[in-house]
Amino acid sequence: MSTSSQASPSVAPSLGTHLVPLRRSWGWLMAAGIALIVLGMAGLGAVALLSLASAIWFGAMIFVGGIVVLADAFRHQGWKSRTMHLVIGVLYLAIGVVTFVNPLVATASLTLLIGCGLVATGLLRLFVAFQNRQLPFWGWVAFSGLLTLVLGGLIIMQWPASSLWVLGTFLAIELIFQGWGTIALALAIRSTFDGVRAKA
User: Fold this and answer.
1) Residue 148's domain spans which residues?
2) Contacts with 165 (C-beta within 8 Å, 6 or more apart), sequence order
3) How does residue 58 score in pLDDT terms, banded at 50, 70 and 90?
């Protein structure tokens, strides 16, 4: 009894001490979440520009990845492994350069890839749902698969015109959800610290 009574008072101050750095940053997290939501809402009004920006950003990441792969190729001893890394690195660099030179082509290619990926995902979800009809809520899985399939089909049927809105819309929605998640995290940190401080 004496051991537990002596240990319990130290729990709250210790936890509060660990939460102090988080408490100080919750305001910055809140501001970042609001900024992400604002950017996402603004992006919904300029999905074409956001689509091009997404393609250029993708090209930049691929280009940097190509440099890293080429640099890593010279660390490999076997000629087969080194050749494979060199080929992959050059391919990455080529894709990055093409994206910078003609971002419209890159945007169209990425949009078509997304459409095909959604169709494949929708078909897979439908297959899994009908294979598990004995399980509860299998209908919701089938419904989500059907929606994904229809969305992918619409993107492919409207391609290449869909290239002007698909990437930008997806990125804008992602920014909005990311913003709400960041705001929720900030509020959770603040409420948790307030609760610990009240118990202390």
Assistant:
1) 26-192
2) 47, 48, 51
3) confident
